[in-house]
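Hey team,

Filing this mostly as a record. A colleague (T.K.) asked me to run one chain through the structure pipeline before their review meeting, and I want the input and output archived in the tracker in case anyone asks later how it was produced. No errors, nothing strange. Just documentation.

Input sequence:
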Amino acid sequence: MDAARISPLTIITKKDSYLNTTRSIRTFNSLYAEVNILPGLRYRFNAGLNFSQSNFNGYNGPLTYFNSATVQSSSNAEISNTEYWDVNLQHLLYFDKTFGKHKLGATALYEYTKNHSLGSRFTITGVPADYIKTGNFSLASGTPVAASDFGNSFSETGLLSYMGRVNYSYNDRYLLTLTLRRDGSSTLSPANRYFNYPAIGAGWNIIEEPFMKNVPAISNLKLRGSWGLSGNRNVGAYSTLGALSAGYYNFGTGTAGQQLAYTVTSLPATNLGWQSTEQIDLGLDFGVLNNRITGSIDYYHQKTKDILLSVPLPASNGASSTLKNLGKTEGKGLETTLTVDIFRNPKGFNWSVDAVYYFNREKITQLTTPTELSNVGAGWFVGQPLSVIYDYKKIGIWQTSDKENGTLAKQTSPVQQPGQIRVEDVNGDGKIDPSDRQILGNFQPKFEAGLTNRFNYKNFDLSIVTFARMGMKVVVPYLTGNAGGGGGFAFFNQSRTNQVKVDYWTETNPTNAFPAPDAGQAVAFFGSTLGYYDGSFIKVRSINLGYTVSGQFLKKVGMNSARLYLNVTNPLILYSPLVRDKLAVDPEGNGYASSTVSAQGRIRQRSSGKLP
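Output structure:
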């Protein structure tokens, strides 16, 4: 039997027994001033302030629909307040000068940024009357509680920046940019808060060369390249200080008599510094046939080191994790765009196509030392991306024939029955244990592509956007189960409610897709293996049809412009194994899934060391 439930009709019949209101104020402010000091030399000051404050009042009277099953006979109330502000101050100095065919520009920057966040939340039970609601917590029979899970917080972070940049061009043909930036972050260890990162960029407008005048078919041609370092300080406020959690010693009588204690949950990171990425880019922009065909090709190669990662620690350590700069990754990719004007008629029908194609290949090149090849606990493997699926490999379902011919008996551990998940015994020792786990794939697509068709005729316009992401694994969370079967595959421990319709095993349906439904009566081994699927898809993201109202009509009604349009979002799924097998409605929504730890394997989400 389900636990007793309160009728949702109490929302109507007991309107004075509940309260859920939020009042917020938010303001964005910007101020600037600019002064011309000398010809070609000017100073600018920018100031920005964002401020927001929110107040929440919530009350649920006894025996109302919004009360949970554990407090239905009592009232509960909540008050919470949040405050956030950030301030940004910039001092900029610009210099621009032209000497014949030479152009020189320089920029100097000093920037100060500070962020502040404060939150408080209190809950209480036993409010004596509905009309009091959140008006006076002192009248309640319970004791106000400041929840430790969420709502009560404080943090402040700061960033100090210096930057200098020089731009030079000759005859708009040869271009050069030199940049040096220095940042100091409050979130890192005091000895490593500052980081310098230079960059250099160059361009060659080949189309401006005299010899290109004899090639009229080419209307634009530019070669460009760059090298630079970038920094990442993406850790939370006070992360380097470690963390404690409140608890009690295991002696004393009752909560009131127990002695307060604190447990170390993460160790201090006394030498935490910046993560850095070195990147080289090469690009080509082109246009032909009076720019009826235009596009670009970009190749990049980047190397990242000193990655900011939360390293899990063994339980014997006491603390669960610590932050470190460790490891190296490498990434490279290609990005291409192409635009073609198939029909170009300013007074008639026009049709243009935009196409994009890109991919990224990321891998770990070093862990803590050059000789360490894997960290199974963290899910890191040299030569693999930071996010991989590391688990047992499902090869089917144990069949009745496997028991009859003795194949099932050859597996001595764990003891399984027909209808349960069968996984690969990698080392062939007759036992399925952690040594049989393997890398099943990752969340990195082989490529992504898009195609946009644009049509217009007189005042009508139409655009159709198609997008594809191919060749990556995804996780279907509601199909993954743990060793006890709870919280995963819909048939385990949930036979009393409606289920997802799947091809599950029975003696008369000896499928290899899903195991037999057991209603939680038997151990469901290797349930995590049920959730790994090909996430490839091709879909039409949007169709937009519009009509621009003519200017003569608008002038009569006192308007400057108007456009009527109809937009359809995600109208068609052209290809998707997930949708085909009725495991998802929108394959793009699955994306890279979330960080999930199963009893048998580990799926790691992209961390702060992710390459862009």
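Quick notes for T.K.: Residues 404-603 form one domain. The first helix runs from residue 10 to 13.
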